[in-house]
């Protein structure tokens, strides 16, 4: 009797799915003149697109690493590469100078997989149970960083390192912990209380990263 009921349920479900209309479309190239919505950007009319609409040429140029962290990220997210809108993928180029670092950060909207193409990079992430997973990566190595977890990349060699990071979202988001704390106007007293850092250290870091308060 139970087996018959299961078989009947499967038949009903299959019939229901077969009757459901399909609203899938091939692509949704972002209309960047419109507002971003929780589901992405609205689509440009297909009649306005051509082959160039699906090509991005911005990753061949090295990023400017002459900054406080000695690193640069060149993204090809929806805002830079409208063709990935709604497709669940994106990519970015990382350039990290000797002694440079991509500080601890999170991507709240997507998983990341990193491919090293030049140099040596020490990378790692911290799980929600505070377990650290770190590894020194060489050319051709891959490392994955699960969505929403703190992670970092450090140049572990003597020349500029280059890597490409792909994401499971066209808008993975980015929040760098140090910048959120010390490049913002979050009051120093609040930072001291919540991080247990001394006032002198908080002020030093704010001065270094351009924060106020």
UniProtKB/TrEMBL annotation:
<dbReference type="InterPro" id="IPR011051">
    <property type="entry name" value="RmlC_Cupin_sf"/>
</dbReference>
<keyword id="KW-0464">Manganese</keyword>
<dbReference type="InterPro" id="IPR014710">
    <property type="entry name" value="RmlC-like_jellyroll"/>
</dbReference>
<feature type="binding site">
    <location>
        <position position="112"/>
    </location>
    <ligand>
        <name>Mn(2+)</name>
    </ligand>
</feature>
<feature type="binding site">
    <location>
        <position position="151"/>
    </location>
    <ligand>
        <name>Mn(2+)</name>
    </ligand>
</feature>
<keyword id="KW-0479">Metal-binding</keyword>
<keyword id="KW-1015">Disulfide bond</keyword>
<feature type="signal peptide">
    <location>
        <begin position="1"/>
        <end position="24"/>
    </location>
</feature>
<dbReference type="GO" id="GO:0030145">
    <property type="term" value="F:manganese ion binding"/>
</dbReference>
<dbReference type="InterPro" id="IPR019780">
    <property type="entry name" value="Germin_Mn-BS"/>
</dbReference>
<feature type="binding site">
    <location>
        <position position="107"/>
    </location>
    <ligand>
        <name>oxalate</name>
    </ligand>
</feature>
<dbReference type="InterPro" id="IPR006045">
    <property type="entry name" value="Cupin_1"/>
</dbReference>
<feature type="domain" description="Cupin type-1">
    <location>
        <begin position="57"/>
        <end position="203"/>
    </location>
</feature>
<protein>
    <recommendedName>
        <fullName>Germin-like protein</fullName>
    </recommendedName>
</protein>
<feature type="binding site">
    <location>
        <position position="105"/>
    </location>
    <ligand>
        <name>Mn(2+)</name>
    </ligand>
</feature>
<comment type="similarity">
    <text>Belongs to the germin family.</text>
</comment>
<feature type="binding site">
    <location>
        <position position="112"/>
    </location>
    <ligand>
        <name>oxalate</name>
    </ligand>
</feature>
<feature type="disulfide bond">
    <location>
        <begin position="28"/>
        <end position="43"/>
    </location>
</feature>
<dbReference type="Pfam" id="PF00190">
    <property type="entry name" value="Cupin_1"/>
</dbReference>
<keyword id="KW-0732">Signal</keyword>
<keyword id="KW-0964">Secreted</keyword>
<dbReference type="InterPro" id="IPR001929">
    <property type="entry name" value="Germin"/>
</dbReference>
<feature type="binding site">
    <location>
        <position position="107"/>
    </location>
    <ligand>
        <name>Mn(2+)</name>
    </ligand>
</feature>
<keyword id="KW-0052">Apoplast</keyword>
<dbReference type="GO" id="GO:0048046">
    <property type="term" value="C:apoplast"/>
</dbReference>
């Amino acid at each position: 009797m139970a087996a018959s009921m299961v078989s009947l349920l499967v038949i009903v479900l299959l019939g229901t799915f077969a009757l459901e209309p399909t609203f899938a479309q091939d692509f949704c190239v972002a209309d960047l003149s419109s507002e971003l919505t929780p589901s992405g950007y609205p689509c440009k009319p297909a009649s306005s697109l051509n082959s160039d609409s699906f090509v991005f040429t911005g990753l061949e140029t090295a990023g400017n690493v002459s900054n406080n962290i000695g690193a640069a990220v060149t993204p090809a997210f929806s805002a830079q590469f409208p063709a990935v809108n709604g497709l669940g993928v994106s990519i970015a180029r990382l350039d990290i100078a000797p002694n440079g670092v991509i500080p601890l950060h999170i991507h709240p909207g997507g998983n990341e997989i990193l491919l090293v193409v030049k140099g040596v990079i020490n990378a790692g992430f911290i799980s929600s149970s505070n377990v650290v997973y770190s590894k020194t990566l060489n050319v051709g190595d891959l490392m994955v960083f699960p969505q929403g977890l703190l992670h970092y990349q450090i140049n572990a060699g003597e020349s500029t390192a280059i890597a490409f990071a792909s994401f499971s979202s066209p808008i993975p988001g980015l929040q760098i912990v140090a910048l959120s704390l010390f490049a913002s106007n979050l009051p120093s007293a609040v930072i001291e209380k919540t991080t247990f850092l001394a006032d002198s250290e908080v002020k030093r870091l704010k001065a270094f990263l351009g924060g106020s308060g």
